[in-house]
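Worked example 3. Consider a protein that binds D-xylitol-5-phosphate.
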Amino acid sequence: MTPIPNRRPLIAPSLLSCDFARIAEEVRAVEEAGADLLHVDVMDGHFVPNITIGPLIVEAIKRHAARPLDVHLMITDPDRYLAAFRDAGADILTVHWEACPHLHRSVQAIHAMDIPAGVSINPATPVSLLRDIIGDIEMVLIMSVNPGFGGQRFIPRALEKISELRTMADAAGRKDLRIEVDGGVTRDNAAELLRAGADILVSGSAVFRSGDYTAYIASLRQS
Ligand code: DX5
Ligand code: ZN
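Given these inputs, the predicted complex is written out as structure tokens:
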């Protein structure tokens, strides 16, 4: 399995906020600006109210990407589409706890395709519900907004959830578990997120509206 890059923190710009008409240029620009991962938000209009991109666009992004594609599936019944997104070029696949009645099976299906598996929880889903899955996954994605849209305000409770998850993972012998945080991440809250135990910062609108991707990504990393 190709591991998640080891550096800490990893900065993952969310392409949801890029200029989709110039996606190849945007991918190149954030990579040159220091992105470690490219975060790709897949939404189906059922699990979340918005519809974004499918495997076809992931494949197009992959053709221009040098960094791993961190694909966040905000879709109902993700099992049906895991292979399609892997074939399209996903390097990490994250499914939502709330969308997977047989979460362990979904994780096994991702691992069977030889890539790391992530599980995401919504703001109202407690960290404690991950207890019986953290031994089997490489990453947890803590949503710090309700999934569906870029540009929303950070929900501060996510900070406590990150600390709680870090403690739980350490106690379970999973110091290597990556904690990713997604939603409302800016250079103003990056430092406290990293202090709480986050390893991977997803940032969409803040990066793409910054006017200077290099400076902004550096400011997230140096927080
Ligand atoms: C929200 C997505 C996020 C989104 C983050 O549902 O999962 O990845 O793009 O955007 P910002 O950083 O603008 O909150
Ligand atoms: Zn996301």
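Take a moment to read the result before moving on. The chain has one domain: 10-222. The chain has eight helices and eight strands.
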